[in-house]
What we know:
By secondary structure, the chain is an alpha+beta fold. Helices cover 62% and strands 15% of the residues. Helix 3 (82-123) runs antiparallel to helix 4.
Amino acid sequence: MSKVMSKYIPTTHAIERARIRFGITSEAVTEWINAMMQDAKLITTNVNKSLVYEAEDVRIIIDGRTNAVITLHHALRTDFLRPALEREIRKLKRESTRRIRMTERNLAEAYAELAERMMNFANARNPQTRKLIEGRIESIQADISDLERHIERLKDEVKAKIRAIELITE
Length: 170
């Protein structure tokens, strides 16, 4: 066997897992793992310095210091989750649209009330009445600002949730 072919040495646990999970004979495990590792892609590095590679729908966990193959797993696939997650995204969008529109209707009512108060202010002659109406206008403007911020928060919240679901599907 060449030097390149025996770069990764499986532990007894890895040999047993290859036999049980993938039907590879104990004698062929080392050669099989090294052949797969030539095309394997590094998926992640764990905190305990183990490296996780993936090749041919097999996850290979390797000790980063000794190149010993610790264990083997079937590759994790989330493709079957995609339809459910897409339904969840559509559901989120429907619910958020409903909530945003309800808040927008409240905002429109506040603008209508503001317009009515502005007309009253413009028509008022008494300074005390104008001052009273001005206070009510300021209150309505504060409510309008709150509603506008609430709409933005709802939109941001939905975007964050959708992004989280998209990350799961990747």
